[in-house]
């Protein structure tokens, strides 16, 4: 993770996130954001090696594999919506930044998991990424529930190094949720206390969307992160 | 940029604070963040929970008062008014929760003075961004120092602070989330940043 300027190369092989960031935010802000992403990934990797040195527990591995697949599912949705969604400017800006964050989260989790990382699943968004309203509604549901899920998982993680990383992702997911809610025209907050939600709840949401598709070559499902 | 700085030794941190904010403010800062370890990996205990949650309570007192006073004197209108009303109600609920949780161990509010920040909408919004981002980083930094029951309560509060931060940042045209990971501030850094606002009287 020393190649700071090319941090997004690994996350964004087609260069779409980088291109859209450059386009929207201008060079100054983009450089700041890229540096921030690079710093974040480096830092997580530092904590990750600490965790990996001690060996991730089965429990933490299961949690992180679930989260990795969830980040892939969301990141891919943002990338696709940017390509297909004919988004108005405010929605496009949010999708660009939030999408870049989700790719960075996926990369960070992949780094922590090392050889135990799950590969990205095959996703079919059934037109949601082509329709701005449906996309926004879906993104809000996922961001709200991801923030809730990370709360549920935080007190169940064994490793404090992994917990530190999870905490720093958690508040960003809450920021995403508030941002997208405001754009969608609903109150950015829910109540004075954001409640946790279990992995089973997240699995229900994912199943209800039918976003996880079959492998087009083998017909097999490739989303082991959601089955554990 | 490094969100988890090597924990500075107390003496060095104190010297730094003295240099920047003056010794009077150090005394107040020392009260606000008293007894919280800088190390993000010190062993959790109920006694440490109480120290950390008292620190959180000071932040919540400050935010609750800030919104209450701004609603009276900052001339807020439209969505900014709605933000202050909603966030203010949340901060009051956080104060009530932490006071109840801490019981007789709850400390009283520090002396506060918001000056120009509660006298016009622009300064109010800028101060709200600072305070909400500060609260997120301060809570985040203590996450690994808490026992699990205290952590469960803290994360329910902290993501609401993150929502406030994103909301008011978007309102003033700033990116609601600038990084993929939010920073984890040590107690020393959080206290220092808090004293820098000038809202806590020396």
Span between termini of chain A: 29 Å
Name the CATH class of the domain at 55-213 in chain A: Mainly Alpha
Structurally, how many domains make up the residues of chain B? 1
In which order are the strands of the major sheet of chain A placed? 1-2
Which fold name fills CATH's third level, the topology of chain B? Ferritin
The best one-word shape of chain A is globular
How does this model look, in words?
The complex is a heterodimer of chains A (228) and B (202). Helix content of chain A is 68%, strand content 2%. With 228 residues, chain A is mainly α. Residues 1-54 of chain A have low confidence and may be disordered. Chain B is an all-alpha fold and 202 residues long. Chain B has one domain (23-196): Up-down Bundle (Ferritin). Chain B is built from seven helices and no strands. In chain B, helix 2 (23-32) crosses helix 7 (187-196) and helix 3 (46-73) runs antiparallel to helix 4. The two termini of chain B are 29 Å apart. Classes of the chains: A mainly alpha (228), B mainly alpha (202).
List keywords for this structure.
heterodimer, A: 228 residues, mainly alpha, Ferritin, globular, B: Ferritin, 7 helices, 0% strand
In short:
Chain A contains seven helices and two strands, in the order H-H-H-H-E-H-H-H-E.
Which SSEs are present, and which pair or pack?
The complex is a heterodimer of chains A (228) and B (202).
Chain A: H1 7-11, H2 16-54, H3 58-84, H4 89-113, E1 122-123, H5 132-154, H6 160-183, H7 199-209, E2 212-213
Antiparallel strand pairs in A: 1-2
Helix pairs in contact in A: 2-4, 2-6, 3-4, 3-5, 4-6, 5-6, 5-7
Chain B: H1 10-21, H2 23-32, H3 46-73, H4 78-102, H5 121-142, H6 148-171, H7 187-196
Helix pairs in contact in B: 1-2, 1-7, 2-7, 3-4, 3-5, 4-6, 5-6, 5-7
């Amino acid at each position: 993770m020393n190649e700071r300027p090319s941090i997004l190369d690994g996350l964004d092989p087609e260069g779409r996130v980088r291109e859209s960031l450059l386009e929207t935010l201008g060079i100054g802000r983009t450089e700041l954001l890229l540096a921030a992403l690079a710093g974040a990934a480096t830092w997580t990797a530092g904590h990750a090696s600490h965790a990996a040195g001690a060996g991730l527990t089965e429990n933490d591995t299961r949690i992180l594999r679930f989260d990795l697949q969830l980040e892939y599912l969301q990141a891919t949705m943002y990338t696709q919506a940017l390509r297909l969604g004919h988004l108005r400017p405010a929605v496009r800006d949010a999708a660009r930044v939030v999408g870049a964050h989700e790719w960075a989260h996926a990369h960070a989790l992949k780094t922590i998991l090392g050889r135990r990382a799950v590969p990205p699943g095959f996703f079919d968004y059934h037109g949601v990424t082509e329709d701005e309203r449906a996309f926004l509604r879906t993104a809000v549901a996922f961001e709200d529930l991801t923030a809730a899920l990370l709360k549920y998982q935080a007190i169940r993680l064994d490793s404090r190094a992994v917990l530190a990383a999870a905490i720093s992702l958690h508040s960003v997911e809450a920021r995403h949720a508030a941002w997208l809610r405001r754009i969608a025209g609903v109150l950015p907050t829910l109540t004075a206390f954001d409640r946790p939600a279990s992995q089973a709840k997240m699995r229900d949401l994912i199943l209800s969307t039918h976003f996880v598709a079959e492998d087009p070559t083998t017909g097999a499902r490739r989303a082991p992160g959601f089955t554990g | 940029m490094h969100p988890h700085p090597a924990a500075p030794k107390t003496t060095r941190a104190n010297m730094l604070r003295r240099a920047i904010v003056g010794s009077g403010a150090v005394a107040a800062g020392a009260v606000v963040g008293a007894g919280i370890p800088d190390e993000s990996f010190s062993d959790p205990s109920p006694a440490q929970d109480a120290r950390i949650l008292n620190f959180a309570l000071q932040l919540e007192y400050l935010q609750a008062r800030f919104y209450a006073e701004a609603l009276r004197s900052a001339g807020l209108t439209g969505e900014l008014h709605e933000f202050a009303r909603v966030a203010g109600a949340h901060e009051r609920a956080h104060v009530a929760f932490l006071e109840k949780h801490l019981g007789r161990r709850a400390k009283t509010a520090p002396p506060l003075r918001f000056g120009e920040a509660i006298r016009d909408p622009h300064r109010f919004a800028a101060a709200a961004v600072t305070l909400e981002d500060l609260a997120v980083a301060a809570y985040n930094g203590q996450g690994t120092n808490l026992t699990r029951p205290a952590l469960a309560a803290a994360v329910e509060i902290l993501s609401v602070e993150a929502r406030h931060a994103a909301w008011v940042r978007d309102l003033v045209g700033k990116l609601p989330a600038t990084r993929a990971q939010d920073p984890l501030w040590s107690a020393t850094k959080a206290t220092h940043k808090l004293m820098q606002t000038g809202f806590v009287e020396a």
